[in-house]
Write a structure and sequence with these properties.
The protein is α+β, with helices and mostly antiparallel strands. The chain contains one helix and eight strands; from the N terminus they run H-E-E-E-E-E-E-E-E. About 15% of the residues have low confidence.
Length: about 120
């Protein structure tokens, strides 16, 4: 019984690890933050992540944030030079949940969907 449990946990761990390793943020993404449209484009090279996130505000003006960070086992975090941060978790190849935090502000929930 003990050996069967060990084998099951080993297979489960390998399945989860393989799935997380296959996830890649590279591409174009869309979301909404507080009802305002967000677009993002990321490039992933190994564990390194870079990209641009564009958030439209209430006046319709675009705010552009250049981000750099890392992704490990489906968890990602990227920061803007002024201290803003995007962090989250890949839910699958075309979805991610997370939060975008402007410097000195409360985190804003964000659900990203890949468009290409």
């Amino acid at each position: 019984m003990r050996k069967t449990g060990f084998v099951f946990l080993s297979v489960l761990w390998l399945t989860v690890a393989a799935h997380a390793a296959a996830l890649d943020l590279t591409g174009k993404w869309e979301a909404q933050v507080m009802g305002f449209p967000v677009t993002a484009e990321f490039t992933q090279k190994g564990k390194l992540l870079s990209g641009v996130l564009v958030l439209r505000d209430i006046t319709g003006q675009s705010n552009t944030y250049h981000l750099s960070g890392t992704i490990v086992d489906g968890f990602f975090a990227a920061v803007h030079g002024s201290g803003h941060m995007l962090r989250g978790t890949m839910l699958g190849p075309n979805e991610a949940d997370g939060e975008f935090t402007l410097k000195d502000a409360q985190p804003l929930p964000i659900h990203l969907r890949r468009v290409r």
